[in-house]
Specification:
Radius of gyration: 14 Å
CATH class: Alpha Beta
Number of strands: 5
Strand content: 15-25%
CATH architecture: 2-Layer Sandwich
């Protein structure tokens, strides 16, 4: 069993998280500009046993896709060309940025560090991945 990677893709930043090899705990890795994300993932996959990449699927309250979905689909096409042997899974990411912001507040991080959007994106990716792990458990 390999680890899972999750992406909270954004126009300016992409939060990245991963699991341990047993897929028990999700933790943040980094936040990168979208143009650096493919390179990072290619290198990560070469060095680690990766079972799948979970890509957040941003939806509105009514279930329709957010405007960024078009960019995400293009990114996934590039990703599949570069890393064709790893499964890519889409997973609903509604409210993860709001939850991440609340997690930061609840953890007592000082106000000036709470403005760090990179941290929010990384935590959002972690929340997407942890939520996916819990969903996967319920499916068994």
């Amino acid at each position: 069993m390999g680890c899972l990677i999750a992406l909270d893709f954004g126009e300016k930043r992409t939060g990245i998280a991963h699991t341990d090899p047993f897929q028990i705990i999700a933790s943040g890795i980094t936040t990168l500009p979208p143009n650096e994300t493919l390179i990072f993932l290619e290198q990560y996959v070469l060095k680690n046993d990766v079972e799948a990449i979970i890509v957040g699927q941003p939806k509105q309250k009514d279930g329709s896709f957010s405007n960024i979905e078009t960019l995400i689909v293009k990114f996934i096409a590039k990703l599949q060309n570069k890393i064709s042997n790893i499964k890519i899974i889409r997973y609903d990411e509604r409210y993860t940025s709001k939850i991440a912001s609340q997690v930061i507040i609840d953890s007592g991080i000082k106000k000036n560090k709470r403005k760090n959007k990179s941290l929010i994106d990384q935590i959002s990716a972690t929340i997407i991945l942890q939520s996916y792990l819990e969903f996967k458990k319920l499916q068994k």
